[in-house]
C-alpha cells in the first residue's frame, strides 16, 4: 500500500507544473472548495478537507445538458456507488424505483433535504427486485428544477443523523434566490415508444428588504410505456408460461389454438407486454427564508407530488378457466395495475446565529399515500357478473420530526454540537372494494373452508393484483426520541470528528452508537483519512406490519387455501417459531487517500467495510407440509434471517484544463462493491433446509443482482456558445438466479454512452439535443428458463431494458 501511494504521488507531481500552467486561463465550472452541509457540524467543511468521502453534484450546471430527468437517474449515472434501475411487472415497485448506495438496501441510506430528514415511502418492495423486503425513499418525487446541488456522503453516519444512515447520506440542497428558468423536453426511444414529455420551471425572488428569499419550482411530465418482450413469444400465445402450470398443458394449448382459429385472430392478438410502466408526474416545491432580525431567520421548504402510473401484469390466456371469464375476455387478457401516489412534505423552523453560536429548531412533516386500481381484469369467481376494474386499496406512511441542533465554534480549533430529535411515525393499510379481494362461490357467497370445489367458478379477487382485504387493513404507530453530541477538532494538518448518539424507540428499546473520523494531511495537498462507527436500525413499521394474504384455489384444485405475506407477529409466524423482528446492528469502517496537488485536480480513493448483523429480509415462499396444516399453501415473512459483510472501494478524480479557447472538464469515478451473506438465522422447524427459508433467488438479490463494478468517464467541453457532453458508464457483470423455476445466468458487463450538445441561441435561450445509451445497449437476453418462457426478453438489471433514448430540450432563463 505504501509503495502504491508513493507511486501515485510521484505521478501526480510530474503533471503538477503542466496543470499549474493551464490554471490561469481556466474558469473552474465546479468549485472544489465549496462548503458542504453533510458529514459534520463544522461550518467550514468542504469535500476536500472532510475526513469522510463526499460527492457534490452541482445540478444547476448539468441539468441543461444531462439526458437524465429525475434524481434517481442523475445519481445513477454520476455516482458509481449509487444504483437504481426501473423494474417491470413488479406491482408497486414498477412505479417507485428502489435506490441503493454501496450495495446496501434502500432502507440503509438516509435522505435529507436542506439537512432535514426526508420521509420514506409507504411501499414495501416484495416482488423479488433489488431491495426486496425493504422500504426506500422516493427521490423522483423531488423535481430536479428545485435542486441546487446534491451531497452524497459515502460513509456510515448513523451516530450523526440517525439509525438508517448505515450506507451513507444523500443531502439535497434546494435552490434559493435566483432568477427564473424554464425548460421543455421531448424524448423518444429507438423503438418509437416510451415518449417522454417534461416541462419544468423555477422562479426565485427576494422576500422583503432584509435579505429574505423565496424559490418556487414545478414539473409536469409524462413517460409513456415501453414493450421489450420477445417477438417470438407470439408463436405460442406468450410462450409456455400459462400452459406450464395448467393441469393438462397440451389440451390447454389446443383449446387456445381453436379459439384463435374460430375468431380469425393471429398470434399478435395474444402478445405479452413487458417493459416500463407509463408514469405521469405533477410536482411543486418551495424554499424560502425570511429574516426576523439581524441574528434570527425563519425558513420554510417542502412540496407536493402527484404520480399516476400504469403497468402491465402477466397475461391470462383463455384456456385458464380458473382466472379468465371467457364471456368477458374470449381471448384472455393482460391485467393493468394503476397507481395514484401522493407525496407531501413540509419543513419549517428558525435559525439563530450569534457570537459563533448556531441554533436551529425545526419541525418536518412527510406523508406518502399509495392507492391501487386493478384494471382490464376480472374476479373469476363472480363469472359474467365480474366488474373489469377494481379499487384495490392502498397504504400510507406519515412521519413528523421535531429537531433541535446547537453548535458552537471555540478558539478556531473546536466545534462542539449537540441536539435532539423526536420522531412520530404512522403506517396504515386500507382495504379495497370487496370484489378486489373476495373469493365467492357460484351463488355469490364468500368461500369458506367448507365450500365444495364444484361450487367455485374460479379464483377470487382481481387478477394481476389482488386487493387488500379488511383482514389486511391496519393502522400502527410509534415514536422515537434521540440525542447526539459531536465534537470536531481542526489544527493545521490534523482533523478529527467524534460523535455519539442515543436512540430510544417505543417498540424497540434503547441503543448507543458512535463514530470517530480522522484526517491527516501528510504533504501539502495529500492526506489520509478514515472512520469507524457502529449503527442501529430498527425495523420499519412497514416491515413489521405489511401483509397481503388472500384466499386462493389450491394448486391441486382440491379446495381453498391462503397465500401471501403474513406479518411477523401473526399466529402462523408464532406457530412456525419465527422470532419477533429485532433491530439490525452494524459496524462501518473506511480508510482513504486524497490528492489535490493543484486547484484543478482532485483524486480520492476510499476503501470500506460494512458488517450488518440480523439484517431484515423477506423470506422465500414456504410451500410444504409445515404450513399446509394451517390451511396455508404459500407464506412469506419478514425476519432477521442473515448477517452480511460488504467490502468495496471508491475512486473519484476530477480535472479541469484549458483546451484551445475552451475548457475541458474530465471526471473519472469507479466503484467496486461485494456483499456476502456470512451467516443465516433459521427457526428450528426450517433447520437444514436453507432453500425453503431463504432460497438461492433471495441470496442472489443480496449478493449478485446489482453490478459489483461500476465506473463513469465524463468529458464536458465548453467553448464559446457550445457545450459538448460525452459520458461513458461501465456496468459490471451481474448474476440472476431464476430459482425455483429458472436457472443461474451471468449477464456480461455493458458500456453505456450518453451524449448531448448544447448551443446558446441567445443569452437567455439554449437548445440541447442528445441521448442516453445512444448505441442502444441492452443487458444480455435472458435464457429461456429465466424469461418466464419467452415473455421477458431482458431482465431489468444493470442499466435497465429501455435501450437508446433520444431527447431535445429548450431551456430559457428570465
TrEMBL record:
TonB-dependent receptor plug domain segment(s): 47-169
SUPFAM superfamilies: Porins
GO cellular component, one term: cell outer membrane
Residue ranges constituting the TonB-dependent receptor-like beta-barrel domain according to the UniProt record: 347-774
Highest rank taxon of the organism: Bacteria
Membrane topology: Multi-pass membrane protein
Pfam families: Plug, TonB_dep_Rec_b-barrel
Subcellular location: Cell outer membrane
Gene3D superfamilies hit by this protein: TonB-dependent receptor, beta-barrel domain, TonB-dependent receptor, plug domain
Keywords per UniProt: Cell outer membrane, Membrane, TonB box, Transmembrane, Transmembrane beta strand, Transport
Family per similarity comment: Belongs to the TonB-dependent receptor family.
Xref: PANTHER family: PTHR47234, SECRETIN_TONB SHORT N-TERMINAL DOMAIN-CONTAINING PROTEIN
Record's protein name: Iron complex outermembrane recepter protein
Organism: Apibacter mensalis
Amino acid at each position: 500500500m505504501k509503495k502504491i501511494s508513493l507511486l501515485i504521488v510521484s505521478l501526480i507531481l510530474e503533471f503538477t507544473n503542466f496543470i499549474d500552467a493551464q490554471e490561469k486561463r481556466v474558469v473552474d465550472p465546479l468549485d472544489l472548495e465549496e462548503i458542504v452541509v453533510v458529514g459534520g457540524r463544522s461550518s467550514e467543511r468542504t469535500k476536500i478537507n472532510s475526513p469522510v468521502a463526499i460527492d457534490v453534484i452541482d445540478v444547476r450546471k448539468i441539468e441543461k445538458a444531462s439526458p437524465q430527468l429525475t434524481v434517481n437517474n442523475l445519481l445513477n449515472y454520476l455516482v458509481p456507488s449509487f444504483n437504481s434501475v426501473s423494474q417491470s411487472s413488479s406491482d408497486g415497485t414498477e412505479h417507485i424505483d428502489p435506490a441503493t448506495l454501496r450495495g446496501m438496501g434502500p432502507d440503509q441510506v438516509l435522505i435529507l433535504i436542506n439537512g432535514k430528514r426526508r420521509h420514506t415511502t409507504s411501499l414495501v418492495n416484495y416482488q423479488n427486485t433489488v431491495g426486496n423486503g425493504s422500504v426506500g425513499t422516493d427521490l423522483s418525487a423531488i423535481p430536479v428544477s428545485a435542486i441546487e446541488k446534491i451531497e452524497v456522503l459515502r460513509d456510515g453516519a448513523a451516530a450523526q443523523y440517525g439509525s438508517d444512515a448505515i450506507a451513507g447520506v444523500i443531502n439535497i440542497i434546494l435552490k434559493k434566490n435566483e432568477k427564473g428558468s424554464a425548460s421543455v423536453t421531448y424524448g423518444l426511444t429507438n423503438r418509437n415508444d416510451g415518449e417522454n414529455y417534461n416541462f419544468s420551471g423555477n422562479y426565485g425572488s427576494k422576500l422583503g428588504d432584509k435579505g429574505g428569499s423565496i424559490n418556487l419550482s414545478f414539473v409536469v411530465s409524462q413517460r409513456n410505456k415501453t414493450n421489450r418482450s420477445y417477438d417470438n413469444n407470439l408463436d405460442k400465445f406468450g410462450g409456455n408460461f400459462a400452459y406450464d402450470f395448467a393441469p393438462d398443458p397440451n389440451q390447454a394449448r389446443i383449446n387456445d389454438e381453436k379459439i384463435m382459429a374460430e375468431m380469425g385472430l393471429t398470434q399478435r392478438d395474444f402478445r405479452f407486454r413487458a417493459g416500463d410502466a407509463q408514469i405521469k408526474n405533477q410536482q411543486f416545491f418551495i424554499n424560502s427564508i425570511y429574516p426576523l432580525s439581524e441574528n434570527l431567520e425563519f425558513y420554510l421548504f417542502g412540496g407536493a407530488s402527484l404520480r399516476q402510473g400504469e403497468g402491465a401484469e402477466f397475461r391470462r390466456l383463455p384456456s385458464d378457466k380458473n382466472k379468465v371469464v371467457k364471456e368477458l375476455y374470449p381471448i384472455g387478457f393482460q391485467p393493468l395495475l394503476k397507481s395514484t401516489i401522493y407525496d407531501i412534505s413540509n419543513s419549517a423552523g428558525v435559525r439563530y446565529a450569534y457570537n459563533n453560536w448556531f441554533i436551529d429548531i425545526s419541525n418536518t412533516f412527510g406523508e406518502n399515500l399509495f392507492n391501487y386500481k386493478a384494471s382490464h381484469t376480472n374476479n373469476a369467481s363472480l363469472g359474467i357478473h365480474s366488474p373489469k376494474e377494481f379499487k384495490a386499496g392502498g397504504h400510507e406512511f406519515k412521519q413528523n420530526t421535531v429537531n433541535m441542533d446547537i453548535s458552537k465554534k471555540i478558539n478556531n480549533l473546536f466545534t462542539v454540537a449537540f441536539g435532539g430529535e423526536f420522531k412520530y411515525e404512522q403506517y396504515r393499510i386500507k382495504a379495497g372494494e370487496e370484489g378486489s379481494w373476495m373469493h365467492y362461490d357460484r351463488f355469490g357467497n364468500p368461500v369458506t373452508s367448507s365450500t365444495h370445489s364444484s361450487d367455485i367458478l374460479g379464483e377470487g379477487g382481481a387478477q394481476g393484483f389482488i386487493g387488500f382485504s379488511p383482514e389486511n387493513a391496519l393502522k400502527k404507530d410509534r415514536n422515537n426520541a434521540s440525542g447526539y453530541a459531536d465534537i470536531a477538532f481542526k489544527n493545521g494538518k490534523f482533523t478529527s470528528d467524534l460523535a455519539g448518539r442515543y436512540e430510544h424507540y417505543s417498540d424497540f428499546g434503547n441503543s448507543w452508537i458512535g463514530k470517530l473520523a480522522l484526517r491527516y494531511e501528510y504533504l501539502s495537498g495529500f492526506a489520509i483519512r478514515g472512520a469507524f462507527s457502529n449503527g442501529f436500525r430498527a425495523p420499519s413499521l412497514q416491515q413489521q406490519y405489511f401483509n397481503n394474504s388472500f384466499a386462493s384455489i389450491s394448486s391441486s384444485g382440491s379446495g381453498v387455501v391462503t397465500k401471501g405475506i403474513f406479518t411477523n407477529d401473526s399466529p402462523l409466524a408464532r406457530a412456525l417459531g419465527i422470532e419477533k423482528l429485532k433491530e439490525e446492528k452494524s459496524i462501518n469502517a473506511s480508510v482513504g487517500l486524497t490528492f489535490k496537488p493543484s486547484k484543478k485536480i482532485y483524486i480520492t480513493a476510499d476503501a470500506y467495510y460494512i458488517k450488518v448483523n440480523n439484517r431484515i429480509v423477506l423470506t422465500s415462499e414456504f410451500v410444504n407440509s409445515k404450513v399446509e396444516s394451517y390451511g396455508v399453501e404459500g407464506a412469506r415473512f419478514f425476519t432477521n434471517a442473515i448477517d452480511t459483510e460488504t467490502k468495496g472501494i471508491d475512486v473519484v478524480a476530477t480535472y479541469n484544463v484549458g483546451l484551445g479557447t475552451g475548457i475541458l472538464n474530465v471526471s473519472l469515478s469507479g466503484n467496486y462493491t461485494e456483499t456476502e451473506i456470512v451467516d443465516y438465522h433459521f427457526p428450528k422447524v426450517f433447520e437444514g433446509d436453507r432453500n425453503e427459508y431463504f432460497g438461492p433467488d433471495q441470496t442472489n438479490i443480496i449478493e449478485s443482482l446489482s453490478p459489483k463494478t461500476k465506473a463513469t468517464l465524463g468529458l464536458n467541453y465548453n467553448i464559446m456558445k457550445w457545450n459538448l457532453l460525452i459520458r461513458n458508464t461501465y456496468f459490471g457483470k451481474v448474476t440472476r438466479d431464476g430459482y425455483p423455476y429458472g436457472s443461474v445466468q451471468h449477464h456480461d458487463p455493458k458500456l453505456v454512452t450518453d451524449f448531448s450538445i448544447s448551443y446558446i441561441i441567445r443569452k437567455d435561450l439554449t437548445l440541447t439535443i442528445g441521448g442516453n445509451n445512444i448505441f442502444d445497449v441492452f443487458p444480455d437476453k435472458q435464457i429461456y428458463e429465466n424469461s418466464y418462457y419467452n415473455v421477458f426478453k431482458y431482465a431489468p438489471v444493470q442499466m435497465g431494458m429501455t435501450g437508446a433514448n433520444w431527447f431535445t430540450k429548450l431551456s430559457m432563463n428570465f
